[in-house]
Each structure stands twice: as structure tokens, then as C-alpha cells.
Amino acid sequence: MRRRNSDFRRPVRRRFSNVFWLTLCGLAVLLLIILLSRETRDSSSRLVYTKRPYRHDRIADGLNITEEMLRPESMTRQINDQISLAKAILVIAKESNNLQFAWELSAQIRNSQMLLSNAASRRSPLTNRESESAIRDMALLLYQAQQLHYDSATMFMRLKAKIQSLEEQANSFSEKSSKYGQIAAEEVPKSLYCLGVRLTAEWFRSSNLQKKLKEEKQAAAKLVDTGLYHFCVFSDNILATSVVVNSTAMNSKNPDMVVFHLVTDEVNYAAMKAWFTMNSFRGVTVVVQKIEEFSWLNASYVPVLKQLQDSDTQNYYFSGNHDNSRTPIKFRNPKYLSMLNHLRFYIPEVFPALKKVVFLDDDVVVQKDLSALFTTDLNGNVNGAVETCMETFHRYHKYLNYSHPLIRQHFDPDACGWAFGMNVFDLVEWRKRNVTGIYHYWQEKNVDRTLWKLGTLPPGLLTFYGLTEALSPSWHILGFGYTNVDSKLIEKGAVLHFNGNSKPWLKIGIEKYKPLWDKYVDYSHPLLQQCNFH
Ligand SMILES: *[C@@H]1O[C@H](CO)[C@@H](O)[C@H](O)[C@H]1NC(C)=O
Ligand SMILES: *[C@@H]1O[C@H](CO)[C@@H](O)[C@H](O)[C@H]1NC(C)=O
Ligand SMILES: *[C@@H]1O[C@H](CO)[C@@H](O)[C@H](O)[C@H]1NC(C)=O
Ligand SMILES: *[C@@H]1O[C@H](CO)[C@@H](O)[C@H](O)[C@H]1NC(C)=O
Ligand SMILES: *[C@@H]1O[C@H](CO)[C@@H](O)[C@H](O)[C@H]1NC(C)=O
């Protein structure tokens, strides 16, 4: 990137710590100019003009260069426009390591500049004849650049991606330096653990159980009524799940039509039931299941479970837990944690009676009524999700191993990634197209972890490839757990997602965004007080 400075004959003070940022800013400005220049030719000439007045003054001695540049048929302007575009592309070509192309471009830029300066020194406009070949040669190169996707829109996205990844790096660095990890996070999970214990005790002590049983009878019909709005959350975090349910309820126009299907693990089951029995959420129906209930979820059916039995895989997945001995009580069982994560691939089996479900991660906050999601046309697709490739460069090649022939054969590396966390699933299509079978196929192919490493997004991208409908981006705003989010997006967003490490229930949560989540926590609740939540 630094080589760029010599391309632009502008004095740039080299302050090394800032060189990179200056370069990026410069590029962004330049790109803006190019984008504008493509839109309106008139304004482009003005812009080019104000950008380098000195040169035109020099040329202008005998010839009014403003007038010349504003003439619709001006060759000077065409060449000028081409040069500025070519210079931007030169940067992209160098950055993409296409040195041959960069070399050809520089040669042509020099050629065109020569033509301009000849015309300037003889003080008469360029004629069509003398400029024709230069313009054509340059146009050819610019056309090639387009074929290579070196256009300004692509570059703009790349720059954004680069800036974002730098921010991510910076953030993760500051997280680390503030002793990120179990150590810094310990205090709040202790409170979470306390809450779990007290709720469990409450559940077995109090007669709420009976009340709950009675309610369950009433609710039973609702749980399978396909005319209602069914949401599912798979989580072992009571407080986070409570925020998801509460925020959905508070912002729902018809809370009595909302049904929440929560799935947790054995450890948190009683506590989860207790919490959603003792609190009411504007008449929203809540049912809690535990993952152990699902006898079909076993190693002979589920590849992930089979793979987890393999000790090699165990080491791989759990070797990060060096500080297990330091964590006082293992309240998060990584096996279940991981299976709760993978449960998203079995939704039709978890809810055999349902036709449509909105899946929410437990680290989201809902800000709007979500009922429109249930009538959104998915055009025969299985998964309705918000695409992520416009915000950053989150395309398939970022997540998958494109050196692997299976991946190369089946998937377009430039396909747009999308996000888990707020998805509409059409379970009828899912069953019809055997999507779980597709997932099993890929999960089994990945037994040696050469297709992807960790997580559920990469297998999700494979499983729902060609089966995903892009939803309007305001349905799902991402990044609250690691980056800065545009405040206009925050207001408009229906679901805000704290993806990233800085969860709002941890001490290291990003202070700025915590209130968005805190709003839906009742900190005056006696149990939260006893467990030191604040
Ligand atoms: C050049 O032309 C522009 C617009 O026609 C005019 O405003 C400007 O004064 C002229 N400059 C010179 C140096 O004649
Ligand atoms: C495992 O799951 C399969 C189908 O999902 C089921 O047929 C089988 O009975 C289950 N095995 C056990 C031991 O529950
Ligand atoms: C679904 O896919 C799996 C694995 O690809 C296959 O074994 C199974 O027979 C398929 N089921 C149906 C109903 O097509
Ligand atoms: C990607 O796939 C190739 C081909 O199977 C394999 O050799 C390589 O190790 C994989 N890369 C990673 C990072 O797993
Ligand atoms: C739900 O959120 C509202 C604020 O929007 C809050 O007043 C209420 O206490 C919350 N309920 C629970 C059970 O957390």
C-alpha cells in the first residue's frame, strides 16, 4: 500500500503510525470522486478541477481550461477522467498482486499524461485524432479491470472490510489487554450460576409446579397451532433468554399470538421453567424443553455427536479450556453447549407439528413487532436470513476452505454470506428438501475438519446454499458484541445481535450498547438482587 504515495505526486508527511490510515482515507476520497464522476460528467470535471488546480492553471496560460474541460466533446477531460480511474485501479491491482496488469496500467497512465502535457505546452486543445489511440488503449485496460472486478464498488467493499478487520483486531486486542476470558468474565457468570441454583431450589420447593402444569394444559393447543407466531431459542443462559422473550413480548402487537419454544439442557431445565413460570411476559406463551428429551438426538443419527465421541475431536474442540480448573463449577457443559448450538439443524424434528418458525439466538434483543416475518414470502426457500456481504466482505470464501475440491466444485466463492441469529425457517420446505440430510452429508465430510474448523455458520452456509432468501437488512443488525454500529441502523433495526465476545451480560460488554439489553432486565427482581446482578 505504501508504494501508492509515489503514484500521487502529493507531499505526504510520513508519520509511520498513521501512514496506513492516511492511505485508506485518501483512497476512500478518491473512490468517492470516481463514483461521482461516473454519475455526472459535469460535476466530475468540476471535481477534478478543484482537486488539482495548479496543473490546470499552468495549462491555462493561453487556453481557458475550464471551458475546455466543460466542453461535452473535450478529449482533455476524457483522458483526465480515465487517468484518475486508472490510478485508483492501479492501487487495487497492486494490492491484488497483479503486477503485470499494474505495469501495463502505469505505462498507459504515463502515455496519457504525456499527451496532456504536450497539448498543454503547445496551448491548444487535444484533437480527436491524436487522442483516439490513447483513449482506446486506456479504455481497453479499464475494461479488463472491470473483468477482474477491480471496479470501485468492489474496492470500496474491500476497504470497508479491511477497516472493519482492523477494528476487530484493535477491539480484540483491547479485550485481551483488559484480561478478556474467563477471568474478567467470571463475576457475572457467578451471578448467573447463583440465579440458576436459586431458581432450581424454588422450582422444587414451591407449588408453582402445579400451577405450571395447569397452564401447560391450556397452552398445549397453542404449541401446535400453526396460525400463531412460533419462536425458538436454544440456550443455557436464563437471563439472556429472558431478555429475548421479554423484548419480543414488549414490542409485539399481539403478544397472545406469540409462542416461545425454549430448549435448554438438563442442568438449567428446572431453573428455566421456574423463571418463565414466576414471570409473565404480556401473555406470551412459553414452553421449556430439555435437549435430553430428544432420544433421536443420538450418536447413531447425529454426526456431530458421533464425532464428539472421538477423543481426537474432543481434544480439538475443548483444548481451549485450559482454565477449567480455575472455573469453580462447570456450569457450562461444553458438550451440551455445542449440541444446543447444533440443534438449529434439527428444527423440523424438534417441532414436528410446526410449519414456520423464527429462530433467535440468545444474544439478541428484539425492538420491533416481528409478526411480518411469518408472512414474508421466502420464494420456496427454506431459510430467510439477512445477508452480510454488503457490510463487509463476508462471502463464502471467507468461511470455507477453497483449496478443498469438494468446496470448489459445489460453491461459488463469491456467494453472499448470511447470518444466523434471526432466521425464518420454512419447515415444510425443509422436510421436503431433506435439508437435515444435506447437513449430515457435509458434517460427515468434515470429519477431519478440512472443510471448515469450528462453529455452525460454515455448515449452515453449505446446508442452506441455494435455499436462502435474503431478508431486508433492518430485520437483523449485527456486530453489537465487537464493533461500532451505525446509530441510524440501531434505531431502525428489528433485532439487534450481540454477536462477538462482548456479551451484554459479561463485565466486558461494550458499555455503549449495554443499555439496549439492560432495558429488558428487571434488576429489581429479588432473585437478581440476591445474586448480585446490577
Ligand atoms: C475561463 O472560463 C470560465 C467560464 O467560462 C470563466 O469563469 C473564467 O473566468 C475563465 N478564465 C480565464 C482565465 O479566462
Ligand atoms: C437414535 O435415533 C434414531 C433416529 O433418530 C432412532 O431410530 C434410534 O432409536 C435412536 N437410538 C436410541 C438409542 O435412542
Ligand atoms: C435425506 O438425506 C439422507 C442423507 O443424505 C439420506 O440418507 C436420506 O435417505 C434422505 N431422506 C429422504 C427422505 O430423502
Ligand atoms: C483445505 O483442504 C485441503 C485439501 O483437502 C487440505 O489439504 C488442507 O489441509 C485444508 N486446509 C485446512 C486449513 O484445513
Ligand atoms: C421486561 O422489560 C420491561 C421493560 O421493557 C421491564 O419493565 C420488565 O421488568 C421486564 N420483565 C422481566 C421479567 O424482566
TrEMBL record:
Pfam families: GAUT_1 (PF25557), Glyco_transf_8 (PF01501). The keyword Transferase applies. It is a single-pass type II membrane protein. GO terms for molecular function: polygalacturonate 4-alpha-galacturonosyltransferase activity. It comes from the Eukaryota. Keywords: Cell wall biogenesis/degradation, Glycosyltransferase, Golgi apparatus, Membrane, Transferase, Transmembrane, Transmembrane helix. The chain crosses the membrane at residues 20-37. Pathway: Glycan metabolism; pectin biosynthesis. One of its GO terms (biological process) is cell wall organization. Belongs to the glycosyltransferase 8 family. It comes from Solanum commersonii (Commerson's wild potato). InterPro entries: GAUT, Glyco_trans_8, Nucleotide-diphossugar_trans. It is an enzyme of class 2 (transferase). GO terms for cellular component: Golgi membrane. It is found in: Golgi apparatus membrane. This is Hexosyltransferase. Its EC number is 2.4.1.-.
